[in-house]
Amino acid sequence: MPHALEIAGMVCPNNVFLAPMAGYTNLPFRQMCEELGAGLTFTEMVSAKGLHYGSEETKLLLLHGTSSLVAEGSVCPPPASGVERRTMLNSPVGCERAAIGALASATGVAAVPAAATGVGEGVRPQPIAATGVGEGVRPQPIAAQIFGSDPEIMREACESEALKDFDLIDINMGCPMPKIVKNGEGSALMENFSLAEKVISSCAKSGKRISVKFRVGISEDTKCAAEFARLCEGAGACLITVHGRTREKIYAGPCDFDEIAAAKNAVNIPVIANGGVWNAKDMQKTLDRTGADGVMVARAALYRPAVFAELTGREEPPLLPLFLKELEETERLYGERFALVFMRKMAAFYLKGKRGGARGKQRLFAAQTLAEVASLACELLSFE
Ligand SMILES: Cc1cc2nc3c(=O)[nH]c(=O)nc-3n(C[C@H](O)[C@H](O)[C@H](O)COP(=O)(O)O)c2cc1C
């Protein structure tokens, strides 16, 4: 059963976490997952270099419920997104392809030609209305994820204003995207233990709680979860998340529970198991086989955010009101243009495997206004 989890003095209401997902885990989505039961949510990965160079777009990825940016109703451009690609709608594996586009937006790397995305062109900054978020006390801790490989720039990011309100900062050491790896970032740090150690210890000097998310290894022959877990703990991390697949596997195939278990047995800090949790049965199996302190859920949350209600033993709420609330919040924070693209995509996720889902997706993608998306959602999602 889910239980509260303490991480270096920070208490999460439960041990079922929402994973960082580039292009998806924006503020309204994270808030919805929290309401559904997620014990801790992570922003998508943001570039430490982007923060160093003052990129407004990078800062925007770090909006949270008490952001002064949000509360003050500042001018805020919708996040660029390269993620509107139909491939992602067809299978869970499609998400990883979408991630390439989304990561490109986070990193400024043009992974797909802008023309192919249909978004981000001619989009103007939009004023954000006073939102109502940003006031009051946060109900639970929040986490951000950063990536980079320069120890000083990473530490500077941890100390930055943009990250000041986050209770935990996670370092991405698992990203398989070639453009990231080529820069020596993400999973490349698992091939360079000494630099990984420097990055973590430099970040820990910021005084923030630091966690690391990594994979069981680069390839089947070079699995090293226990060794890397020890390195993280020794360098000052207070939490690790182990994705049970190698970099070579990207997001496909079963997870290696033995490797996650080895990491758990190697350290005294909490260990979160990630990969392949789609329902309560998967979660139990993952916890039993790894001995981990909790689980982190990624793709299941896109297709069925109510998975958090299932995993935390709550009654699953109907989908439609959640969808409409997310739509409203997304528009309010990021503007109609972004919300249209994003919410069409989210609705399409929800339709996967449903009767008439393929036709529903076509109709959604033909929608030109948010009102149309809302009305189609009422028609298509109300059979729940
Ligand atoms: C669309 C997408 C975007 C992702 N973005 C990130 C990211 O920004 N940072 C990260 O550490 N992992 C990222 N991941 C990996 C997930 O956090 C997670 O490790 C992976 O999907 C395995 O979990 P799952 O089997 O529950 O999906 C992403 C995955 C997907 C599908």
List its traits.
TIM Barrel; 14% strand; binds flavin mononucleotide; globular; 19 helices; 2 domains; alpha/beta; 12 strands; 384 residues; eight-stranded parallel β-barrel; two-stranded antiparallel sheet
Biggest beta sheet attributes: 8 strands, parallel, barrel
N-C termini distance: 27 Å
Total number of helices: 19
Compute the number of strand runs: 12
Tell me which ligands are bound.
Answer: flavin mononucleotide
What count of structural domains?
A: 2
Class from secondary-structure proportions? alpha/beta
Shape by Cα distribution? globular
Structure description:
The chain is an alpha/beta fold. The protein folds into two domains: 5-311, Alpha-Beta Barrel (TIM Barrel); 319-381, no CATH class. It is 44% helix and 14% strand. It is built from 19 helices and twelve strands. The protein has helices spanning 27-36, 48-52, 56-60, 68-71, 87-90, 92-107, 114-117, 151-158, 178-182, 193-204, 225-235, 257-266, 280-290, 299-303, 307-311, 319-334, 336-351, 357-366, 370-381; strands at residues 5-7, 10-12, 16-18, 40-47, 75-76, 126-127, 143-147, 168-173, 209-215, 239-243, 271-274, 294-297. The strands form three sheets. An eight-stranded parallel β-barrel has the order 3-4-7-8-9-10-11-12, surrounded by seven helices. The longest helix has 16 residues, at 92-107. It is globular, with a radius of gyration of 19 Å. Residues 72-136 have low confidence and may be disordered. Bound molecules: flavin mononucleotide. The site of flavin mononucleotide (FMN) has 27 residues, from strand 4, helix 6 and helix 14. Flavin mononucleotide binds next to strand 4, helix 6 and helix 14.
